[in-house]
Amino acid sequence: MLGDSLTAGYGLASRDALPARLEAALRALGVDASVINAGVSGDTTGGGLARTEWALADDPHAVVVALGANDGLRAIDPAVTRANLDRLLGILAERGLPVLLAGMVAPPNLGPDYAARFDPIYPELAARHGAILYPFLLEGAATEAALNQEDGIHPNAAGVEVIAKRMIPSVLCLIRRTGHPAAGRLRRECAE
Question: Does residue 129 carry a catalytic annotation?
Answer without folding.
Answer: no
